[in-house]
Amino acid sequence: MEHILGKGWQIMPAGGATGEAYQAKYEDQTLFLKRNSSPFLAVLSAEGIVPKLLWTKRLGNGDVITAQKWLNGRELKASEMNNDAVGRLLGRIHGSSELLDMLKRLGKKPLTPELIIDEIETNIQSEQECPPKIKEAVSYLKMQKNVIHHDKKVVCHCDVNHNNWMVSETNELFLIDWDGAMIADPALDLGLLLYWYIPRDNWAQWLSVYGVELTVDLQRRMHWYIVAQTIQSVFWHGQRKQNAEKEYWYNFLKQILRESYYIN
Predict the structure, then answer these.
(1) Residue-range domains of the chain with CATH
(2) Is the pLDDT of residue 15 over 70?
(3) What is the pLDDT of residues 207-261, one digit of tens each?
(4) Residues designated catalytic
(5) Residues 71/45, Cβ–Cβ less than 8 Å
(6) Measured between alpha carbons, how far is 113 from 124 in angstroms, rounded to an integer?
(7) pTM of the model
(8) In angstroms, what CA-CA distances link 200 with 29, 196, 263?
């Protein structure tokens, strides 16, 4: 990284799952650098969804380095996900034709219920034993996959965890870490966010700020996607031998499966 920026820059790892993110400092300048970010980043920056993209450089080995304005701020707390600003920003993201067009140009295909079920069944085949509630959940997904069909696909972040929402010192809100973005039913993001963070009595109000009504159809779709995502969380933690986390998500799966009897 030093040869890109020149002498005098102090470069430090900035965390992240890939280990490809860095903080660079020189006098009063601070940059967020990342190796091989998606071209999608430019549109996200133009839309004001992530901190401003300053420049992009391609290296001789084919790697691409991006530099963004360093955000002096903090992650949202779980209790702050009920804020209107979160609903408004997610509504703007899901409603953006520019973001959708860019992902399509990058070759992204819509994530369908059938593809999700196929991925889950592949994970099951790699397991020595499939717990009974996982089998019950997969049966539910298969039974309901045609009921929750939804024509409108949008750009979904797919990991709207509170740790990915950043608020600046000037109270600007951003949603970061877009490496897993997909074209999908907006209920994929909505289900995760509402089930994790928003009290059930506040769902209708939160969704009105986002820009839709809480219908039975939306409830069915959100429930379907949160069941699917929870199964995948059980497998993800199990593969990493994180037994406490695996048990947490398995218990959460049992809890949300009980809802299927009165939603559908």
Answers:
(1) 2-70 (3.30.200), 75-263 (3.90.1200.10)
(2) no
(3) 999 999 999 999 999 999 999 999 999 999 999 999 999 999 999 999 999 886 5
(4) 159
(5) no
(6) 17
(7) 0.90
(8) 44, 10, 14
